[in-house]
Design brief:
Blueprint (H helix, E strand, L loop, with lengths): L1 H21 L3 H21 L3 H25 L4 H4 L3 H23 L11 H7 L1 H11 L2 H23 L3 H6 L1
Helix pairs in contact: 1-2, 2-3, 6-7
Amino acid sequence: MVLFFFVYFSLVSIVAGVFTIAFRNPVHCGLALLTLLLHVAGLFVLLNAEFLFAVQIIVYAGAILVLYLFVLMLLNLKTEQRYLHTRHAIILFATAGIFGELLLLLLQSPFSGAKGDAPAVAILQDGDSFAVGIKMFSDYLLPFEIVGVFLLGAIIGAIVLAKTPTAVDAEQE
């Protein structure tokens, strides 16, 4: 049964990823991206990674996609600027292929990263969300707080930019 769901989630993720870059309408691209993100979350469930599932749904399928759609709605895209030209698509796919090969080489190298220090039995007993929380608020408390300050600065910057009149607003008055 797990194999069936893995094949389903992976095939739909691949098709949705292709549709995300192939559709011409930005709203359709956003819906295809939503489908992709939800099915990737399903893959996390199959891996027993509940924390990553929740992060995928809340952060990516929720917040990031909403921000993406807000930008699409706020931008007044001209129809000729909205379409991906064939030459650009070929360059995009070639670049993605090169980066994919580099990623595979990196994952197979001895520099792929260190293994965690918690035993697998402890993680299975307490759960991966508990293990991530303990690690984040003990060993990585300072970086976690610094990211919070950066996000606060980004929110303040977004509010300032939203309230600042632009040259277009001055011309309309």
